[in-house]
Amino acid sequence: MTNKEKLETLRKKLEKNAPNLPLAKTFKDIVPGEGNPEAMLMFIGEAAGYYEHLQRRPFVGAAGKLLTQSLEDIGISREDVWISNILKVRPPENRDPLPEEIKAYKPYLDAEVQIIKPKIIVTLGRYSMTKFFPQTYITKIHGQAHWVDWEGRRLIVFPMYHPAAALRSQKVMELFKADFEILARIINSLNNQSIPGNMENEAEKLQDSEINQQLTFL
Questions:
Q1: Using CA atoms, how far apart are residues 23 and 52, in angstroms rounded to an integer?
Q2: How many angstroms separate the CA atoms of 124 and 162, rounded?
Q3: What is the pLDDT of residues 126-147, one digit of tens each?
Q4: 77-116 exposure pattern, b = at least 16 Cβ within 10 A, e = fewer
Q5: Which residues are within 8 A (CB) of 195 and not within 5 positions of it... i.e. 6 or more apart?
Q6: Nearest to 50 by CA among 11, 89, 19
Q7: Section 38-67 average pLDDT
Q8: What backbone torsions phi and psi does residue 174 show, to the nearest 5 degrees?
Q9: CA 9 to chain CA centroid, nearest Å
Q10: Domain limits at 129?
Q11: What is the CATH number of the domain that holds 129?
Q12: Cα(215)–Cα(218) distance, integer angstroms
């Protein structure tokens, strides 16, 4: 079964189970992930918003437009990456996700990561960040690449501010753009190297590269 077929099966399972999940009544409330099933780069946001709920697509509102434009600015098409959320639904009035809601949707997000096997995961916002780094603050680790052991695999996790936060603050916008430039250099370095193989060796190469961003081993 191809990744595309596996993700389609996962989507159907999620939609079928919608009445048993928080904040969802029918499959129409579900906002599944989308993009390239073979993506090297995966973005994880927090939850669907108003326009995402209407279109049943992640990151299609103002924050989504900023994300799409930021990708294009570094030469990447939105269709080349995978985009998803911690919650596959819209919380009332776009409030923050609750712990029990995050827990309920966790198996579906974990399955997406397991199927796609991205080399880099970019977390957007603090709730997405805490999936991998529960004991820190986004102000301390945004724009920093970290090697993480996840489900028997070693991958790079790159925390960033949520684009919605960037739209609300000029200071955060500047940090968001600067972090995207760092991300671009990391991606370019990986593309110029033979990534399959010993990831520790790749980390050493990255540390010696022009990225100027030391990867933290967790």
A1: 14
A2: 4
A3: 999 999 999 999 999 999 999 9
A4: ebeebbbbbbbbbbbeeeeebeeebbebbeebbebbbebb
A5: 119, 202
A6: 89
A7: 97
A8: -65, -40
A9: 20
A10: 3-190+199-217
A11: 3.40.470.10
A12: 9
Residues 6+ apart with CB under 8 A from 215: 145, 146, 147, 156, 203, 206, 207
Which residue from 83, 2, 3, 61 is spatially nearest to 37, judged by alpha carbons? Answer: 3
| Residue keyed to tokens 């250099």 | 185
Residue in the structure block whose two tokens are 């939609």: 15
Band (pLDDT 50/70/90 cuts) for residue 152 is: confident
Count of structural domains within the chain: 1
Length of the chain: 218
Coil, strand or helix at 45: strand
Residue type, 84: S
Cα gap 194→210, rounded to integer Å:
17
Locate 52 and state its tokens.
Answer: 């995402």
